[in-house]
């Protein structure tokens, strides 16, 4: 960030901002939004025109703040807080950032207007035709209308290499002093040279903690927030069924008379068990290529955590791969798991996955990928390792060996 101007009394400015922040605790969803606000880092910067957030940091241009009417300052603050509150950064996925920001702002501003917040000095994006819609559905509707607009104007060839028409109107968040705006909007994308899941997890954990505070205060979360939290936190795959089928594939599983079945204390019946003690070693491969979003990685983590805690394998190895194995982490049965930092973001190749399986021969393998690559060659004779392929939004994906499970977001 650029150096701040020295013509502002920043001590007085901070006191003014404290007053603005106090109004969050007086408004609707005070416990929920207040908890999120207290977890964020606030900074005055001079290289943006207005205000923006990445879900962890909230940056303000001091001149923009000072030029706003006092009642509007609280509105803009709550608007910025609602972006991470709704996990807008994680939900975008591969959607167009500008159109997604527009859709997200419509949802937020509709709500703020309905709750009586003041937009004095601004003409916010809002549209009550979308009242009750979730952000994803608004985006899809806007995207469809934009494509119709492009077709009506004779298609991309008519623009001679210029920009395609956009349905997004002129920006509403404008610095009154400079009459300029931030071209990227108020949702900041992560640095593409340093993308990892830490930021996404921190945003998610902040919202989870805030939802607990809201519950203690008797507040009801917006339905869209509840649905989004469940989407990211609850595993979607039927692992009980999938791993039961996996057990049937393992050659060593058989009935044994080694110990009595506890369900039948008076009758000596055989128990179904693995001669080596169950799932000894699950290898879990995470595709960290550029086509995998932070939201996808959080989904992967929720599935990994579920399998670890419910099936308690003796060892789980998590391997991140793109064109090579980027990172390897080993979790024993007693080790906790919360999250991992993601590295990589190159292309995708399943050759290093295949070689690692051949070299290490785990009990079972789970590969989480969008499978936008050449299918993996079948394992050589004698390497009998069952594989589950979790194909993310890949309806046409094919595999040469193993069980293919589709995960649609």
What does the model show?
There is one protein chain. By secondary structure, the chain is an alpha/beta fold. The protein has 2 domains: 224 residues, no CATH class; 169 residues, 3-Layer(aba) Sandwich (Rossmann fold), CATH 3.40.50. It has 12 helices and 13 strands. Helix 11 links the parallel strand 8 and strand 9. Helix 4 crosses helix 6 and helix 6 crosses helix 7. The longest helix has 20 residues. The protein is elongated.
SSE diagram, text form:
Blueprint: H1 10-22, H2 30-39, E1 41-44, E2 51-53, E3 57-60, H3 62-67, H4 70-85, H5 88-91, H6 97-114, H7 135-152, E4 174-175, E5 180-181, H8 197-216, H9 223-233, H10 239-249, E6 253-256, E7 271-274, E8 281-287, H11 294-311, E9 315-321, E10 325-332, H12 351-360, E11 364-369, E12 387-392, E13 403-407
Parallel strand pairs: 1-3, 8-9, 8-11, 11-12, 12-13
Antiparallel strand pairs: 2-3, 4-5, 6-7, 9-10
Helix pairs in contact: 2-4, 2-8, 4-6, 6-7
């Amino acid at each position: 960030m650029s150096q701040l101007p020295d013509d502002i009394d920043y001590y007085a400015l901070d006191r003014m901002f404290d007053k603005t922040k106090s109004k969050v605790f007086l408004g609707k969803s005070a416990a929920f939004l207040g908890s999120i606000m207290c977890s964020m880092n606030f900074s005055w910067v001079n290289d943006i025109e207005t205000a923006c957030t990445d879900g962890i940091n909230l940056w303000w241009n001091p001149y923009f703040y000072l030029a706003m009417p006092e009642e509007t300052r609280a509105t803009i603050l709550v608007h910025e807080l609602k972006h991470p509150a709704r996990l807008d950064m994680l939900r975008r996925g591969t959607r167009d950032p500008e159109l997604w920001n527009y859709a997200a702002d419509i949802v937020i501003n509709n709500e703020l207007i309905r709750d009586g917040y003041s937009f004095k000095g601004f003409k916010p994006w809002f549209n009550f035709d979308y009242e009750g819609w979730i952000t994803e559905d608004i985006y899809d509707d806007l995207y469809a209308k934009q494509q119709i607009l492009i077709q009506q104007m004779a298609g991309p060839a008519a623009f001679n290499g210029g920009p395609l028409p956009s349905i997004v109107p002129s920006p509403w968040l404008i610095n009154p002093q400079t009459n300029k705006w931030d071209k990227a909007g108020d949702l900041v994308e992560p640095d593409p040279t340093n993308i990892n899941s830490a930021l996404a997890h921190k945003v998610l954990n902040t919202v989870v903690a805030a939802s607990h505070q809201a519950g203690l205060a008797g507040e009801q979360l917006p339905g869209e927030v509840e649905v989004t939290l469940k989407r990211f936190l609850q595993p979607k795959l039927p692992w009980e069924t999938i791993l039961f089928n996996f057990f049937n594939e393992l050659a060593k599983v058989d009935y044994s008379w080694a110990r009595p079945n506890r369900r039948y204390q008076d009758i000596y019946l055989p128990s179904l068990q693995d001669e080596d003690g169950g799932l000894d070693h699950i290898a879990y491969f995470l595709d960290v290529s550029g086509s995998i979003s932070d939201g996808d990685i959080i989904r992967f983590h929720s599935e990994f955590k579920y399998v670890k805690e419910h099936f308690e394998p003796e060892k789980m190895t998590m391997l991140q791969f793109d064109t090579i194995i980027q990172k390897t982490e080993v979790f024993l049965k007693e080790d906790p798991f919360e999250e991992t930092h993601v590295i990589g973001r190159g292309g995708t190749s399943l050759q290093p996955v295949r070689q690692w399986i051949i070299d290490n021969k785990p009990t079972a393998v789970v590969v989480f990928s969008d499978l936008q690559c050449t299918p993996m060659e079948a394992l050589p004779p004698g390497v009998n390792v069952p594989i589950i392929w979790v194909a993310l939004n890949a309806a046409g994906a094919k595999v040469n060996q193993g069980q293919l499970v589709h995960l649609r977001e």
